[in-house]
Write a structure and sequence with these properties.
20 strands; EC 1.1.1.49; oxidoreductase; G6P_DH_NAD-bd; alpha/beta; G6P_DH_AS; glucose metabolism
């Protein structure tokens, strides 16, 4: 067996031991970017064998005798095809749909932020691909308009920006054109010359052309010897049937391991902190069940409407746009059992178990609404139906509230209430955990007599994780007001991120792009997760559309339909974001 810097030659090992060609995970050292935070606790570095079409088939992790994965492995310079290439490796990132808003506002800025913080590999190239005719310089000018030195405003920001832009190039072509992607492949090879090529495609395009792009790119622009991965943006279909068809179509050209279904909410700091809060703090894990938790609320609101995008939004509605993906993924992370490890598959296995344990949503457990025009402070705000891009008579909901249940031993009988809407009174996304009442509360008599100053039965403990804006974790507790009397008050124990952590919180796209480059799938959605999620919502979506259920109208800038409060009251619950003691600030 040929010796390598790793102590063994992986390709020779697997040729002699074909049954060992699985994915073997080793403990990796913590990795730091300039954010001065730990990026990853575990990474699986894969040895990729190649088939005739260049798709990865098998993989294994490896480390040296100290359990440390060498730099050439983390940087992709070691493969199962032989010794590391002389020039090391390179990563080519192609943003398909480069002229669109998502690419300009989120993807290119996220890539620059990663470069600025030295989180990208040493050798990388960024390509934009779209139908628009554009030169390399025109692409750079377009990108430069959205790049900022928001992170810490170091003096070298201008230099770093110029260095990043010089690595950005453009290729024009049709999305279903193999010739266009073949020309992209030619240009990529010029930049990759002498290095092991790894390629990441970000599909920032409408879902109806996902398959065309994957077909053309996989056939003509896949890496011949390194890895090739595709990031796919939501929506992943409109229901179980269309989602399944999309998955089958993608898998005609890609392996499941090559498909990274992105839900950017899973990359948000508070969502990633959810499992840390629960599994690394003894005070919370024993309480995380039906024995102590009365209900869980997942709340999403925007203070603006569709703003001219009503034609696109009308095809999906708020349930598909927010609840079936963002909020349901957070719910699965919140409710899952302790995974065997932090490996991606172990975590995703537990999420799937939660989703499969959930009841199908019924129409009586759903309230839908649609915002109408409203005048406030002398300013008029148009209603959803006033948007000229929205079809006349549309009953597409811009607001929805739902009660969901998990039929397992931990959560039996606990209502998980979701609420999402546009054109509401505030912008927020949060998880609210309301705990049960204290049995035999000593202060109930004083409260009933008016001496305590607080209804102790109503003022139960509540844990709030504010995902956005102003990230925070706070716990509502009952407390004695200082003084000679016995008067109770409700107070907050809070962790406000902006005060505790002075550095900038990375954007969710930064985290997810870096994970995709590193092959970390923990925050991406597996196909069976997607199937289980659609199984919950598809029946009620079909019923809403077949019966053309009229949404309850609510004024632009209000708290939403009154029906949402009746829905919560059915389960003896009050929405936590509307109580008088919680205005969303400290």
């Amino acid at each position: 067996m040929a010796a390598t810097g790793l102590g063994f030659h992986p390709a020779a090992f697997f040729s002699a031991h074909p049954r060992e060609a699985g994915t073997i995970t080793k403990q990796l050292p913590f990795r730091h970017c300039s954010h001065h935070r730990i990026r990853v606790a575990r990474r699986t570095c894969l040895l990729r064998a190649k088939s005739s079409n260049g798709r990865p088939q098998i993989g294994a992790s490896f480390s040296n005798s100290n359990g440390i994965v060498p730099a050439e492995v983390l940087d992709g310079r070691a493969t199962g095809d032989g010794p590391p290439e002389q020039g090391g490796s390179t990563v080519s990132i192609t943003v398909v749909g480069a002229s669109g808003d998502l690419a300009k506002k989120k993807i290119f800025p996220a890539l620059f932020a990663l470069f600025y913080e030295d989180c990208l590999p040493k050798h990388f190239t960024v390509f934009g691909y779209a139908r628009s005719k554009m030169s390399d310089e025109e692409l750079r000018n377009m990108i430069s308009m959205t790049l900022t030195c928001r992170i810490d405003k170091r003096e070298n920001c201008g230099d770093k920006m110029e260095q990043f832009l010089q690595r950005c190039f453009y290729q024009s072509g049709q999305y279903n054109s193999e010739d266009g992607f073949a020309e992209l492949d030619r240009k990529l090879k010029e930049k990759e010359a002498g290095k092991l090529p790894n390629r990441l495609f970000y599909l920032s395009i409408p879902p109806n052309i996902f398959v065309d792009v994957v077909r053309s790119a996989s056939r003509t622009a896949s890496s011949s010897s390194g890895w090739t991965r595709f990031i796919v943006e939501k929506p992943f279909g409109r229901d179980s049937e269309s989602s399944g068809e999309l998955t089958r179509s993608l898998k005609m050209y890609l392996a499941e391991e090559q498909i990274f279904r992105i839900d950017h909410y899973l990359g948000k700091e508070l969502v990633e902190n959810l499992s840390v809060l629960r599994f690394s703090n003894l005070v919370f894990e024993p309480l995380w069940s039906r024995n102590y938790i009365r209900n869980v609320q997942l709340i999403f609101s925007e203070d603006f409407g569709t703003e001219g995008r009503g034609g696109y939004f009308d095809n999906y509605g708020i349930i598909r746009d927010i609840m079936q993906n963002h909020l349901l993924q957070i719910l699965a992370l919140f409710a899952m059992e302790t995974p065997v490890s932090l490996d991606a598959e172990d975590i995703r296995n537990e999420k799937v178990k939660v989703l499969r344990s959930m009841r199908q949503l019924k129409l009586e457990d759903v309230v839908v609404g649609q915002y109408k025009g409203h005048t406030r402070g002398g300013k008029s705000f148009p209603g959803y139906a006033d948007d000229p891009t929205v079809p006349k008579g549309s009953v597409t909901p811009t607001f929805a509230a739902a009660a969901l249940f998990i039929d397992n031993a931990r959560w039996d009988g606990v209502p998980f209430l979701m609420k999402a809407g546009k054109a509401l009174h505030t912008r927020r996304a949060e998880i609210r955990v309301q705990f049960r009442r204290v049995p035999g509360n000593l202060y109930r008599r004083r409260s009933a007599a008016g001496a305590a100053g607080l209804d102790v039965d109503a003022a139960t403990n509540e844990l709030v994780l504010r995902v956005q804006p102003d990230e925070a974790i706070y716990l509502k507790i009952n407390n004695k007001v200082p003084g000679l009397g016995m008067r109770l008050d409700r107070s907050d124990l809070n962790l406000l991120y902006s005060e505790r952590y002075r550095r900038e919180i990375p954007d969710a796209y930064e985290r997810l792009l870096l994970d995709a480059i590193e092959g970390e799938r923990r925050l991406f959605i597996r196909s069976d997760e997607l199937d289980a999620a659609w199984a919950i919502f598809t029946p009620v979506l079909r019923e809403l559309e077949e019966k053309r259920v009229a949404p309850e109208l609510y004024p632009y800038g209000s708290r939403g339909p009154v029906g949402a409060h009746y829905l919560a009251a059915n389960y003896n619950v009050r929405w936590g974001d509307i109580t008088s003691d919680d205005d969303g600030s400290f």
